[in-house]
Amino acid sequence: MYGDSDELASVLTRAYAAGVGTILAIGIGDGPETMPRALDIAEASRDEDMPAIYASAGIHPQEAHQATPEALAKLADLCERERCVAVGEIGLDYYHLDNPDVATQQAAFIAQLGVAVTARKPILIHCRTSELAAPAAKEKYGAADAWEDLLALLAEHWQPHGLGGIMHCFSGTVEQARRSLDLGFHLSFAGNLTYPAARSIREAAKSAPADRILIETDAPFLAPIPHRGERNEPALIVHTAATLADLRGISPQELGALTTANFQKLFPTTGLTHN
User: Fold this and answer.
1) Could you give the 3-state DSSP secondary structure of residue 67?
2) Which of 53, 137, 181, 225 is deepest in the core (most CB within 10 A)?
């Protein structure tokens, strides 16, 4: 989150100048206590010369141990607010050693799926495996596979409800992309799509159905080339869009129209005015 109101205004001004018309701000905060932060910003941002802002709300798997009954009730209340269009980002993260254990993460995930079902909101999925984790984290999570666990839980607890959602910052394989699509999800590609080593992500981006692709920043992380290593922000999405357009053999303008239409279909209220 950006430091103060002046900095936020500058970020939004640059985004609008770059052609960004709508932003979905991820509402995880630093945990359940600050979960409403993105939604508060979305509700306060109604300037027609700035991007329209909508928000999600959710408890990130790193804070899964804080998914108490009170926190889940707070999430349910946030879902009733007009500018809250999704639950997330939620999911599984077996990468960091200090993350909660597998059972705690899965319990929090399932509980939030239940909140989203009740609210009839799509979900934003975070999934990170221990494949590239430090040895101690690999030892902690053992043979557990975040992708396999995630897809199994979604098949059992989410797919039957037909609400869909987004694989946030998709970084999986072509096969994981296919299985995600089969479960009704969109694939959202971030700045790492522009990195030369991201071959599997690029293959998934090339082969995904046109009506199921989206782009995102994952700001302040994963700034795209030529800004890799800098703090990411919405204006830089144009570089990710250009890469995805090139991979799919279309113009950036066509890609922008396509991803906007896909976003508005998944979140119909975002196609309305700022008011």
Assistant:
1) coil
2) 53
**pLDDT at position 79 over 50:** yes
Asked whether the beta carbons of 163 and 116 are under 8 A apart, the reply is: yes
Which pLDDT tens digit goes with each residue over 103-115? 999 999 999 999 9
| pLDDT at residue 132 in the model | 79
Cβ(71)–Cβ(57) below 8 Å: no
Average pLDDT, the chain: 95
Residue 258: what pLDDT?
98
Mean pLDDT computed over 259-267 = 97
Residue 157 in this model has a pLDDT that exceeds 60: yes
Query: H or E element: which one contains 53?
Result: strand 52-57
Greater pLDDT, 156 or 134: 156
SS3 of the chain: helix, strand, coil, percent, to 5: 50, 15, 35
| Cα–Cα dist 170/167, whole Å | 6
Q: Which of 106, 39, 16 is nearest to 67 (CA)?
A: 106
Contacts of 187 (CB under 8 A, 6+ apart): 166, 167, 170, 177, 180, 181, 204, 205, 208, 212, 213, 214
Distance in angstroms between the alpha carbons of the first and the last residue of the chain? 24
**Residues near 248 by Cβ (< 8 Å), separated by ≥ 6?**
205, 206, 210, 255
Give Cα separations from 264 to 208, 218, 261 (angstroms): 18, 19, 5
H helices within 122-251, ranges in order? 135-141, 146-157, 174-182, 199-207, 237-248
At residue 81, the 3 state secondary structure works out as coil
Structure tokens at 3: 């430091």
User: Is the pTM of the predicted complex or chain greater than 0.90?
Assistant: yes
One-letter amino acid for residue 27 of the chain = G
